[in-house]
């Protein structure tokens, strides 16, 4: 009965398939985009700038995206966002083809173009992801949310991190342009699947003006301090984790000695952890309860960052990424299902956007901070030690969050 929703709910099946397909494209891009950046420049700050551009829209556009989501047809927002990503992948293909040979001394122009493309792709993703998270309660019953979220994230992990990264590594080995051409096709397919979803009509938002509508979302969050605390905690977690993710491509090359295919394979172990976490998280949450589940996730965050901070063995790094994905999935299944059940549908887009503003808005600063930390420490302690530093910082920060959660995090 675990997959009964897939068999019996057509719209959920289409949403699940579209999300899986879209995440396959995201998984390919997760390897191809930073790898292309390293081919254009070995400067840690420029590589970090690409990662920052991928996260900055969460800080800039999370709040307006919530208002748009509550006012508009959420399905059409997702379709349009995917079509924008198709166009941007075509632009990237043309940019790569314009470079006669990679790697090469190309100057800063191509890297700046890549930064702009990364920013625009992420801007479309902000709109799509906010709409995707708010559309699910309209498709499945409230009692099925944990199961639906766990299944969706497991499928997304299989596509986005188990299949996508190693596939990207193989494609890069054949030709750097291939992953971006594949992604254009993938995002077009996702848009087509979403177009087929048939949702019942919903009342449009009653607030006509933008700022009053946004204030409603902030007001609801202020009246629910547990949600606000979770959002701020998520912001701190995401800031240090995106720092580690930003440096991971250089860490894999210079500390672990991996090729593009090896880097893709390394990310695949994270996907395995995500699949395991997505399938087991509903059971763990039911057994331990929300608070203890989140404490377990925080404890694992500390452990995995220590493994990356002190280790230099590919197998140990693979185990750390497995734990990262599994514990992150446990955190997400618990907190997202809690929000979806608690927040009224008419406010879901706006409150989710406020939550994501706090929870995701710090990521670009974390990415740049990690790049700056490596750049500053390299002359002082050496390149390899500097590449370990962001993970040690992340371990210390997560340990502090765990202490805070023990003292302050309570659910009614």
Automatic annotation (TrEMBL):
Q: Give the top-rank taxon of the lineage listed in the UniProt record for this protein.
A: Bacteria
What CDD domains does the record point to?
A: MFS_MefA_like
Recall the GO molecular function terms of this protein's record.
Answer: transmembrane transporter activity
Q: Can you say where in the cell this protein is located?
A: Cell membrane
**Major subcellular location class:** membrane
Q: In what residue span(s) does the Major facilitator superfamily (MFS) profile domain sit? A: 224-412
**Transmembrane residues, as ranges?**
83-102, 108-127, 162-180, 186-205, 226-252, 258-281, 293-310, 316-336, 357-377, 389-407
InterPro entries for the chain: MFS_dom (IPR020846), MFS_trans_sf (IPR036259), TM_effector (IPR010290)
Gene Ontology terms: cellular component: plasma membrane
Give the bilayer topology.
Multi-pass membrane protein
Pfam hit, one: MFS_3
| Gene3D superfamilies reported in the protein's UniProt record | MFS general substrate transporter like domains
Q: Which UniProt keywords apply?
A: Cell membrane, Membrane, Transmembrane, Transmembrane helix, Transport
> Any keyword Transmembrane?
yes
What name does UniProt use for this protein?
A: MFS transporter
Give the source lineage, highest ranks first.
Answer: Bacteria, Pseudomonadati, Pseudomonadota, Alphaproteobacteria, Rhodobacterales
